[in-house]
Amino acid sequence: MLQIGDFMIERLNNEILREFSLKCCYPKNNFVCYENDLCDKIGYIVEGSLQLVHFTTNGEEKILAELKSGDIFGDFLINSEYPYFPGNLVCLEETSICFLEKEKLNKLLVSNDAFRNIYLKQLSDKALQLNQHNKILLQKSLKDKILMYINNRITIDKSFIIRINNKQTLANYLNVTRQSLSREMKLMKKDNLIDYNKKYIWLKEEN
């Protein structure tokens, strides 16, 4: 999702910030929107976190994305030909969100060069991230997927120790079952390729 981070605080002036709604607060497990709801505004997560969840035709739950404080959602949908949410947005904890309606967003993109440049840059960055995700999924083996994921995170996070929220989230990202991921990680640890604990995963030094 679109990560705007510090530029919301440092680079957007008060005039732009006033365009966003006041904070809307949602309790844990609350639905911010439902699958196939119309996306007519973008949301900025001030505090808290969300999951974008889709249920397959056989009832299997798929986590499409996890969103945290500083993320924007709806940016890829709002001006598309099919502007409907692909899943349910559910609060993982108490979450505060500010919204910017489509009409106001499009006016800002026309009238404010700084906002437009930053917004388009972040969309481009997100498109690159999606492309990298596809490259990971195209790897032939689960081992190769895990290694490419770790190496990409090392580059992005600038840290050799990669934080993982939980194995289920990583399994969803790699499009495998949690059981398959756990089994492969144990084999890779035994082969001295990686090491991990409940919160972190990292490459062994000799790799």
In short:
A hairpin with a 5-residue loop joins β5 (49-55) and β6. The chain has 207 residues and is α+β, with helices and mostly antiparallel strands. The protein is built from 7 helices and 12 strands.
Structural notes for this entry:
By secondary structure, this protein is an alpha+beta fold. The protein folds into two domains: 2-129, Jelly Rolls (Sandwich); 139-203, Arc Repressor Mutant, subunit A. It is 39% helix and 26% strand. The chain is built from seven helices and twelve strands. It has helices at 7-10, 14-17, 102-111, 113-137, 142-157, 167-174, 178-190; strands at 2-3, 24-26, 31-33, 41-47, 49-55, 61-68, 71-73, 88-91, 95-101, 161-163, 194-196, 200-203. The strands form three sheets. It has a five-stranded antiparallel sheet with strand order 1-7-4-9-2. Strands 3-8-5-6 form a four-stranded antiparallel sheet. A hairpin with a 3-residue loop joins strand 11 (194-196) and strand 12. Helix 4 packs antiparallel against helix 5 (142-157) and helix 6 packs across helix 7 (178-190). It starts with a strand and ends with a strand.
Gyration radius from CA atoms, angstroms: 19 Å
Number of domains: 2
What sequence of helices (H) and strands (E) makes up the elements?
Answer: EHHEEEEEEEEHHHEHHEE
Residue share in β-strands: 25-35%
Low-confidence stretches: 1-9
Question: Quick one: biggest sheet?
Answer: 5 strands, antiparallel
CATH topology of the largest domain: Jelly Rolls
Which second-level CATH architecture of the largest domain applies?
Sandwich
Structural class by helix and strand composition: alpha+beta
Overall CATH class of the largest domain: Mainly Beta
Helical percentage: 25-40%
Annotation, overall tally of beta strands = 12
